[in-house]
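Marked as duplicate of an earlier ticket. Keeping the data here for the record.
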Amino acid sequence: VVSTQSTGLNNIDVLVSLQGERVGEAEDMLRQHCEDEGAARNQFTRKLQDIENALRNLDKHKGESDRRNDRLAEKLDLLFKSIQEQNTRVDKLTQDMTNGMRDFEKQLGRMEPQIDRQKDLIENLKEDRDRHQNDMRNLRNKLDDLENALRRLGDGGRGGGGGGGGPSVVEEVVV
């Protein structure tokens, strides 16, 4: 019975020893897990701080960007107002020009009969000028003929009288 008890005790010792080893391994694992968890917490804390810093920087840049956007919006408003004013001026000028063109067309319509009369008058004056130029040319030719006839008379008077019964040189030229 003692040997059975001793064997039973040995088995219990073995079991306790195995359990002790397992507890030791579990403690080691727990310690390692705690160290890993601590390292993970530290890493998580650092990343959280990095994110918080990034958010603060982002807020700072967002504020600067918002101020810049506000300034740009003001400039755009001023530019839009300026464009509206210019469009108003252009519309007024366009209306004035349209009215002026309409008035000019009316005046031109009233002047067309006068212009047609002026054109007819100019055409008549051109015809009169052409007639006068032809008359002047004819008179010059007659004057030249008369001068030539007078020269011939002056030459002929010395040579003997010219007493035939025909018309004189002056009469020829005048006729």
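See parent ticket for discussion. Confidence is low (pLDDT under 50) at residues 159-166.
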